[in-house]
């Protein structure tokens, strides 16, 4: 594979990135080729030493998505980062997706529990209207206490969700660096 073929394949593998980022990355790889040619290597040797342009594109796209999720932790950015890291290898389907599903299940169940407890006084009043003559003051006061507990749960889930997202993004970053060639100790 020569320089032109390598750069074309790398460019097509980087479709998820912005035009400016792709241009910077391609310029870096053109410099690799230029310095390799100065050392007397052929374009084929340089391309072979660099590795697969598709795999390089996947790794760079995953790093970009993880960094974007780290700076702006929205649900969409985190999902894109998860899929980009899973795309690095089939083994990551199990290693990344299983913890992500488990954590999202925990977060979703916490939010649903908090919302349902906050809504409990309304449900007691609706029940009293539907089933006339069954209103009990104890039910109303109990549901009000549950509503207070629900508010505390919602506040806790707000902070727990932020912490879980930050921790999972760190895990994605760790996983992506591990897949790209192991961990480097500085």
Written description of the protein model:
With 186 residues, the chain is an all-alpha fold. The protein has helices at 3-13, 19-38, 43-50, 53-71, 75-86, 91-118, 120-130, 137-179. It contains 8 helices and no strands. The protein folds into 2 domains: 1-51, no CATH class; 73-186, no CATH class. The protein is rod-shaped. α1 (3-13) packs parallel to α4 and α5 crosses α8. The longest helix is centred in the last third of the chain and has 43 residues, at 137-179. It starts with a helix and ends in a 7-residue tail after the last helix.
Alpha-carbon distance between the two ends: 34 Å
Largest sheet: none
**Which assembly state applies to the chains in this document?**
single chain
The tally of strands reads 0
As a whole number of angstroms, the C-alpha radius of gyration is: 26 Å
Mean pLDDT: 83
Helix/sheet category: mainly alpha
Query: What is the molecular shape?
Result: rod-shaped
Keywords:
186 residues, 8 helices, single chain, rod-shaped, mainly alpha
Give a nutshell description of this structure:
Helices cover 82% and strands 0% of the residues. It has helices at 3-13, 19-38, 43-50, 53-71, 75-86, 91-118, 120-130, 137-179.
Topology:
Blueprint (H helix, E strand, L loop, with lengths): L2 H11 L5 H20 L4 H8 L2 H19 L3 H12 L4 H28 L1 H11 L6 H43 L7
